[in-house]
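Contributing new records

If you add data, match the layout below exactly. Sequence lines come first and carry their own label; structure lines follow with theirs. Keep one chain per record. Anything else will be rejected by the validation script.
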Amino acid sequence: MSGLSKVERLSTEKIGKLLLEMSSQTTFSLLVYAIYSITDSCFLSVGINSRAKIAE
């Protein structure tokens, strides 16, 4: 990052570069959350399925 403050950067740099830079962290965190959610669902379905077989 150059020596400019955030306000100065918003008024001087290209919008595409700023958009990519500022949205990348949010996009990455949403990707991590999606992977966590899918993994959690898989583990829960295996755990619930095994308990259902024991109850029979």
